[in-house]
Amino acid sequence: QVQLVESGGGLVQAGGSLRLSCAASVRTFSLYTMGWFRQAPGNERESVAAINWSGGNTYYADSVKGRFTISRDNAKNTVYLQMNSLKPGDTAVYYCAARVGQLAINTYEYPYWGQGTQVTVSS
Length: 123
Known about the structure:
Elements: E1 3-7, E2 10-13, E3 18-25, E4 32-39, E5 46-51, E6 58-60, E7 68-73, E8 78-83, E9 92-100, E10 112-113, E11 117-122
Parallel strand pairs: 2-11
Antiparallel strand pairs: 1-3, 3-8, 4-5, 4-9, 5-6, 7-8, 9-10, 9-11
């Protein structure tokens, strides 16, 4: 059984920053590729960032590249998403996801999901 719990969402002004955290309840966290996805009302869930088991390989969507940073602390079973220079278009529910295997960016490749945390960016 894998459980993921996101935290750190909130309301910020455009240009502000937030750091999301995802705490994972797993036996061996280092085996998992971790991803962040987001979904705005009426839109499909989209990949934001992903990080492999060692942290040595990462992926970022073009829309967030240079503004967001994904990282992980395997000793704490936690993955983070540092979000800087936030824009109104970043407003969405952000989900943490986990899978065993290589880096992936498709929702169907991730069997484990958190409950989501709301990020709202005002203009």
